[in-house]
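note to self: the first set is below, dont mix up w the second
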Amino acid sequence: MGKQSHRNEKGRGVAKLAAASLEPYSKGTNMKDDSKLTVNIPLISIVNDEPTTTSLAIAEGTEVQHKNVMELTRKYLEDLQLFGTLAFETRKSGGRPTEYAILNEPQSTLLITYLKNTEIVRKFKMSLVKAFFEAREQLRHRFDPAQMSRSEILRIALDAEEEKQKLAAQIELDKPKVQFAERHARADGWFCLRDAAKQAGLPPKRFNLLLHEHGYIYRSPSAGVWLPYSSATQKGLLDVKSTTIARPDGTEKVTQQCMVTAKGLQYFQNKFATEEAPV
């Protein structure tokens, strides 16, 4: 697995819930036989003290191809992000890396409503609802001081202090990037994709591909250039620079160029900080 990860499972202590392992449903089977069909993909994981599931788990549980689940995720990305930031990670298991989405409870519930309501999907919904309920109960007891030992309370305090120190170190590390963005924001505020890629420490093609894969830009079918989605411009991350060129025959030609704002530069630097340039 490459270094690409929007959430570092080891650093952030992602806890897998063994009791909530995924049980996909095969056509023609009943719920009594489903226990024989467990797989190694966890249905629920705790990420930053929040129960989450993945598009991989949803695909397994509903017997829908994962690429189709990801297509729905991309299609309704703006809907899903009404319930929180949608994270993506890459998983490699012996073959081509697979990108998947990490969804919280309302996001996963909404995504499943976009699937055809077959018997398999219906049973998976029940399994998912039950798993989220059990995860919340575990979290509630886990952070109940009345049920915690002194050593557990001390460990939580030490972990909090460690996270505080890491955050302070990261803020100090990001100072040059923030200062750079502020200086250029006062100058013109926009960067072309090539310059933004350079500041992010990535090859331009890799930077453009990441923006495209994460739903920020698309290639114009008519002009053949990268342009931002409206959601990215509304968030102030990207914009379009229009230039009028006078032709020798007296006519004019208008060209468009995707530009990264100062806010977008800082955002993408942080978002793609763990990306590696391909060897």
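second set (the one i keep forgetting abt)
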Amino acid sequence: MSCEEIARKLNNVIYRNCDYEGDLKGKSFTDDLELDSVSLMQLVVEVEEEFKVSLDESDNLLELMDNYDNLLEYLQEKLEG
């Protein structure tokens, strides 16, 4: 899956889970997109289902879910190719 495909699919998952519709680059899930803990967990589940990955395998799930860039980078490293 290409970087562009991963970003597009991730964007779609995020847009389904929040009211934000702008550019996601550099955005914090909690501060900028105002996701609460329940919404964050729902996002984790949807990302795992969409990309067929387990985010629990990451070294630090909290850091991974801190912002869009961290999550996108992780997914691109796991899925690119």
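remember for set 2: Residues 48 and 55 are 7 Å apart (CA to CA).
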